[in-house]
Each structure stands twice: as structure tokens, then as C-alpha cells.
Design goal:
Length: 402
């Protein structure tokens, strides 16, 4: 079975093609600048098998349907392709950001399901419309090929009410479903399952804290294989400070800035989403690599930005250890979590009270690894995330049962 995995953004389309007999990635790529006026689109396609060349060129991408068609043409081309025809694709798996309270697992994308996803647009106005457009584009080009939606929010639907209800008048939850939803659920699910395998324990007997740290970051407490708390909230803006997102702040600050700077709510949300986080603190960059280089050059504000990030992550880890009344392993994943040894070291320096003992030499390695010493009471791990594989596996399971 071959599964086509798609992650559609407002002006982008990431994809991978899997051969599920071996779970091998046959090809992957990215279409960018879709629908942008006065700008050519761009497509980078990389076959992962054989000796096919990489395609990296500008082309017309007026909409997502055009991008899907361009990808399928490349996948089946003689020079860059890995399959002979579109008929070899058995199903499509879509990354869907927000399923609200409607979905606690992946589902076949029927008309009824898509209507429910539409209802969640107010909860994720930046993401769900793009996800819907990706599904509609595939339907337009691929016809009746079965499609499955895998929701970022689904994994966190196991949180107890005490973890997801906000201390605001209950009518706002009853009328508008304002609550903590959490995100990055597909990543947290994959990483926690893999951690249990490494520990050699049934996941039902584990207490894990997963730190998904990239430009967007979230932490999850996974007790017995289910999410019991997570740092992102009603939107992905909440939690620890991120590349450009503010994380948790005093809500009164928002009113204070708006009144003094004469900002409307759209401008204020732009500040909180795109101008804050480590970028706002440092005034250097949202990229942790740039910040590390700036620290090495003596930039004190970059140093402060990283220190605030490390401190916030460590505090959240401590609170989740308390929430689960213990922890067996702390796992670092995603771009920063997987690749920044200094970030892991700074965070782990706060965790001695939990019995965490970082192996400094092991921490300098790369890939999947245990970075704690044999004496450490809590295992410290690095596990590269693989959200696309989760989507492909769920798609295969659902489609195989049809």
C-alpha cells in the first residue's frame, strides 16, 4: 500500500509518499508561495529511492489544486518520479490542525467529517481553512481515492476537565467551547510510544514528559500512554515562550499595550504571535541557532532570551512531574529539542531535584539516544519525531478496514 501524506498550509504544501510495506519514504517535497500574487510558486521534490534527480524550480501555483497536480506529475515523471501512475496511490493522509471536541482519533474524511472540521474554523482560523483547502484540492485532482484526517488536537482529548477547563465564567465553555485543546498531538503521541519501546515497558506503565521544541514549542504530560496535560491551550500561542509567540502572560498586559499603543485586536495579536517570544526578547532572531551565535558574540539580550526559554521549559517539566506524581523519562524532540545540545543541558541543569543526571558526552551526539547516565533516576532521551509516519500508519489502518 502506498500512502500520500499531505500537510497543507495557507500558501504551502508539504508532502511525503510512503510505501507502507516497509514504511519507507519514496519521495518528499514542498510547494511554496501558492496563490501569492505577483510571485511564482516554488517546488522542491526529493526522491528517496533510486538515482532520480532532485527537482528544485519555480513554477505556476495559482492554488492548492495546481500544487497537488504538480506533485502528482513529478511523482509519476520519468526523470523525477518514483511511481508509474497516480493509480498506485491507495490513500491520502492529511494533517488536520483542529478537531475541537469532535475528534479524539483519526477518521475517514467524509462529507460529514469535513462539515465538522468547518465548524472548527473559528478555533483555528489560520490553519483549518488551509487544511480544508488541501483536502478539497486532493478530491478535485484525485477523485475517489480515500482520505484520512489526523488531528493535532486529538491526542489531548484525554485530558481531565481539571486540566482543560479555564477559570472563566462557564458560559464561555458552554457557548463557545473555550478550553485548553493542546497541539502537536501527533508528535507527542509518536514520541511517547517510541519512548516506551526504548524503556522496554508497556506504555500503560509509564509516566513521560515530552518536550516538543521548535519554532513552535509545547510540552505534554503523558501518563499511561494518554495525555493528561499540555502547555499549549485554546490556541498555539499559549505555554512556554517560542520563536515568535509569547506563551503565557498576564492578560492585563494586552489591554495595557493596546490602550497605550492605540492598537486594535488584530495588531495586538500580530505582536503576540509574530513579534514576541525569543525574537521579542532578543531583538535578534526567532531561530535558536542565531541566538546561540549571538550569545557567543557577547549579546546579553540573546542570552536572556535563551535563559527565559530554558527556565520556562524546566518549570513546566517540574509541574508535570507533580501532576503525574512522578516521571520515568523526559524526552526532547523537534528541531531545537533534537539538535541543540546546549538547550538540553541548560534545561536539565534545573532537574537535579527529580534525580536527572545528564551524560554530557552522550548529550553531544545526534539522532535517537539516551543522554542520561546509568545512575540517573529519570531517563533523559532524544527521539526524533515523525508525524508523517503516524499519519501514514493511521491512514493505512483506517483504509485497510474499509
Amino acid at each position: 500500500m502506498k500512502i500520500f501524506v499531505i500537510n497543507a498550509g495557507s500558501s504551502s504544501l508539504k508532502y511525503q509518499l510512503f510505501d507502507m510495506e516497509t514504511e519507507e519514504v519514496l519521495a518528499s517535497g514542498l510547494c511554496e508561495r501558492i496563490k501569492l500574487k505577483d510571485s511564482m510558486g516554488h517546488m522542491r521534490h526529493k526522491p528517496q529511492v533510486g538515482n532520480a534527480e532532485i527537482f528544485d524550480e519555480e513554477l505556476e501555483l495559482p492554488d492548492h489544486a495546481a500544487a497537488i497536480k504538480a506533485v502528482l506529475d513529478i511523482l509519476t515523471s520519468e526523470k523525477y518520479g518514483v511511481i508509474k501512475s497516480m493509480d498506485e496511490i491507495d490513500a491520502v493522509g492529511h494533517r488536520m490542525v483542529h478537531g475541537g471536541e469532535n475528534f479524539n482519533s483519526s477518521v475517514l474524511l467524509t462529507d460529514e467529517v469535513m462539515a465538522a472540521v468547518e465548524e472548527c474554523v473559528p478555533l483555528a482560523p489560520l490553519h483549518n481553512p488551509a487544511n480544508i483547502e488541501g483536502v478539497n484540492a486532493c478530491r478535485a485532482v484525485m477523485g475517489d481515492v480515500p482520505m484520512v484526517g489526523v488531528f493535532d488536537t486529538a491526542f489531548h482529548q484525554t485530558m481531565p476537565r481539571k486540566a482543560y477547563i479555564y477559570p472563566i465564567p462557564k458560559k464561555y465553555y458552554q457557548d463557545y467551547k473555550i478550553r485548553r485543546y493542546g497541539f502537536h498531538g501527533t508528535s507527542h503521541r509518536f514520541v511517547s510510544a517510541r519512548a516506551a519501546e526504548i524503556l522496554g515497558k508497556p506504555i500503560e506503565e509509564t509516566k513521560l514528559i515530552v518536550c516538543h521544541m521548535g519554532n513552535g514549542s509545547s510540552i505534554a504530560a503523558v501518563n499511561g500512554g494518554v495525555s493528561v496535560d499540555t502547555s499549549m491551550g485554546f490556541t498555539p500561542i499559549a505555554g512556554i515562550p517560542m520563536g515568535t509567540r509569547v506563551g503565557d502572560i498576564d492578560a492585563g498586559i494586552i489591554q495595557f499595550i493596546m490602550s497605550h499603543e492605540h492598537l486594535n485586536i488584530e495588531a495586538m495579536m500580530n505582536v503576540l504571535n509574530r513579534e514576541s517570544g525569543v525574537l521579542g526578547i532578543s531583538d535578534v532572531s526567532s531561530d535558536f541557532r542565531d541566538l546561540t551565535a549571538a550569545v557567543d558574540s557577547g549579546n546579553g539580550e540573546a542570552r536572556l532570551a535563551l535563559a527565559i526559554f530554558h527556565y520556562s521549559v524546566a518549570k513546566t517539566i517540574g509541574s508535570y512531574a507533580a501532576a503525574m506524581n512522578g516521571v520515568d523519562a523526559i524526552i526532547f524532540t523537534a528541531g531545537v529539542g533534537e539538535n541543540s545540545a546546549s538547550t538540553r543541558q541548560k534545561i536539565c541543569a534545573y532537574l537535579n531535584f527529580l534525580g536527572c543526571d545528564l551524560d554530557l558526552e552522550a548529550n553531544e551526539g545526534h539522532g535517537e539516544m539516551i543522554i542520561s547516565t546509568p545512575e540517573s533516576r529519570v531517563k533523559l532521551m532524544v527521539i526524533p519525531t515523525n508525524e508523517e509516519l503516524v499519519i501514514a500508519r493511521d491512514t493505512k489502518e483506517i483504509v485497510s478496514a474499509l
